[in-house]
Write a structure and sequence with these properties.
Helix content is about 30%, strand content about 25%. The protein is α/β, with parallel strands linked by helices. The strands form 3 sheets. Strands 3, 5, 6, 7, 8, 15 and 16 form a 7-stranded mixed beta sheet that branches. Strands 11-10-9-12-13-14 form a 6-stranded parallel beta sheet, sandwiched between helices. Helix 2 (about 115-135) crosses helix 3 (about 155-165) and helix 2 (about 115-135) crosses helix 8. The chain is globular and about 60 Å long.
């Protein structure tokens, strides 16, 4: 069997993304074969395409980008008895940019009845990331104030909604009036346009000089160190993405006066155990079904248009969650 896929044979700009046909065998023992209906598009894919350091380092070429998708099980490998042919599922496993693929059953999550495959394919990585950021790495409590950078982005809108549902006061930063409206409609109590205002001064003003309990930062270089000034005593700054570049060495003494903590986590560590993956997904599905989090798909691209999709995501021309349609 052949399947359409996107490969890169070297790191670089979006032009290195190539549409190819690959041979696909039957699922091996412990695997399932999924015909995908939606493939997630995430900023992590851009880091991987560029060869940025991190969990993707050292992979041999050609590389199939991506790590999440959704679709329908069309074949079962030997020993798989908890899934069935025809079942709608989502998964988290590297190599997602492919129309049909084999995935280890331990990384596959059955979708609840009525849960959109497209929504799951677009948002699984973001939703699982939000789950550990809000419920495990830092446990958001009622009354907390939190700062969410890039609050109109695919991650920002999920974090903001879920943090608000957990009882937090949510402050978001954005880069335009249009994105401010998106953030306001997705959970933010207060929105700061960082191009017009000093986000540190405004955050302190909004918290009566106390600061926020936690900063969620997917921007990186441009905002991470200034964000330390937004934190209250014993606060935590979490850098989970680097859209503006890596956060490089900074003076550790900046943390001293308020006993601040910083973290640079990756989702893979929090869902490496299949049981943790299932629990995280169950919490996400429960939050969505309860109405605490509204997951959306904002941009749709054909798999063959992946170069344009990467250019627009990297250029911050997207809001919400984009998806590739095989």
């Amino acid at each position: 069997m052949q399947s359409t896929a996107i490969h890169i044979h070297r790191h670089g700009d979006p032009s290195v993304l190539q549409l190819v046909q690959v041979e696909l065998g039957p699922p091996a023992p412990g695997e399932v074969q999924i015909r995908q209906t939606a493939i997630g598009l995430n900023f992590a894919d851009i880091y991987q395409r560029k060869g940025a350091h991190g969990p993707h380092g050292g992979e041999p070429f050609p590389i199939t980008l991506g790590s999440q998708g959704a679709g329908v099980v069309q074949a079962l490998g030997e020993g798989v008895d908890l899934l069935r042919v025809g079942q709608p599922v989502a998964y988290f496993q590297p190599g997602a940019y492919q129309a049909i693929r084999n995935v280890h059953a331990s990384r596959v999550i059955p979708l609840p009845d009525g849960f959109s495959q497209e929504v799951a394919g677009a948002n699984l990585l973001r939703g699982l990331t939000a789950e550990y950021l809000l419920r495990r790495l830092y446990v958001v409590k009622p009354g907390d104030a939190v700062l969410v950078h890039a609050a109109a982005g695919g991650m920002g809108v999920i974090l903001s909604q879920w943090a608000r549902a957990l009882g937090a006061t949510v402050i978001g930063t954005v880069g335009s009036e249009q994105k401010a409206a998106v953030a306001q409609a997705h959970g933010c109590h207060h929105v700061i346009d960082y191009r017009r205002e000093d986000f540190v001064a405004r955050t302190l003003e909004l918290t009566a000089g106390v600061g926020v309990a936690v900063v969620y930062d997917a921007v990186g270089k441009d905002v991470f160190v200034p964000s330390l000034g937004c934190l209250k005593t014993l606060g935590m700054a979490i850098n989970y993405g680097t859209a503006s570049g890596d956060v490089e060495g900074f003076d550790l003494q900046l943390l001293h006066a308020k006993s601040l903590s910083v973290s640079r986590p990756t989702l893979r560590s929090f869902i490496a155990d299949p049981a943790d993956l299932r629990r995280s997904a169950a919490a996400l599905f429960e939050a969505v079904q309860a109405g605490a989090v509204r997951l959306e798909v904002k941009q749709r691209y054909a798999l063959a248009d992946v170069q344009r999709a990467h250019r627009e995501l990297e250029g911050r021309a997207t809001t919400g969650a984009p998806v590739l349609i095989p």
